[in-house]
Design goal:
With 133 residues, the protein is mainly β. It contains no helices and 13 strands. β7 and β8 form a beta hairpin. It is globular and about 45 Å long.
């Protein structure tokens, strides 16, 4: 069965760094995307970043662009999210998820590429990231 497992969360001070990892198994798709979402208490789950399997295209939400970096190790079907310059507002449960689609779509209304949570079929259990002094 498809399984995604996240790790790497923890408590870090503002300005610090963490690296999250997501290892996926149990599927035979050649074309897929793995994305990172996060959800803070009382807030909607939001897309953070994603990466595609084929062309290695990446996406970042505006709130994390320049601070977070997503990367992939295809040999292990593992995706990493390097998070630098962390802010208290980054505090959330971070989830990785698998999509059989590109992982993003173009929003004509906003003029941006966005992540559609409904395009992601399989989810990990999440890992807590807390940024606090």
């Amino acid at each position: 069965q498809v399984q995604l497992v996240e790790s790497g969360g923890g408590l870090v001070q503002p300005g610090g760094s963490l690296r999250l990892s997501c290892t996926a198994s149990g599927f035979t798709l050649e074309n897929y995307s793995i994305g990172w979402f996060r959800q803070a208490p009382g807030k909607e789950r939001e897309g953070v970043s994603c990466i595609s399997s084929g062309d290695d295209n990446t996406y970042y939400a505006d709130s994390v662009k320049g601070r977070f970096t997503i990367s992939r190790d295809n040999s292990k079907i593992t995706v990493y999210l390097q998070m630098n310059s962390l802010k208290p507002e980054d505090t959330a449960v971070y989830y990785c998820a698998l999509s059989q689609f590109p992982g993003t779509y173009y929003s004509v209304g906003s003029g941006k590429y966005l992540m559609n949570i409904e395009d992601y079929d399989y989810w990990g259990q999440g890992t807590q990231v807390t940024v606090s002094s």
